[in-house]
Amino acid sequence: xxxxxxxxxxxxxxxxxxxxxxxxxxxxxxxxxxxxxxxxxxxxxxxxxxxxxxxxxxxxxxxxxxxxxxxxxxxxxxxxxxxxxxxxxxxxxxxxxxxxxxxxxxxxxxxxxxxxxxxxxxxxxxxxxxxxxxxxxxxx
Length: 140
What we know:
Radius of gyration: 52 Å
Shape: elongated
Number of helices: 4
Strand content: under 5%
Mean pLDDT: 85
Helix content: over 70%
Distance between the termini: 143 Å
Order of helices and strands: HHHH
């Protein structure tokens, strides 16, 4: 035997590939029947859509939805008005309570004292403007 390996050579002949062309499905009884059913369904749907019953039902639903929306809006308006009235009443009561509890004599005295202090400060500023400069220098 020889030490040289014997290789087995396999040759695959190249065949020309034909492009894939899908088969054209011809009209069959099944397809024709399906088209007929589809056309009948479309026709029935159009008749139902154009019917007076559908139009009346749609109008009724629109009126009903409008009425529900109007009622909901009225309820919300009533609640908002009621809440605003309640808040105004509470604020009025708080103000009445504050007026009743206020010591008006003390408030009048404080206001008078504050006003007199302000008047005194303003008169002092006015006196400084009319005082001659010589008296101011001698007075200091």
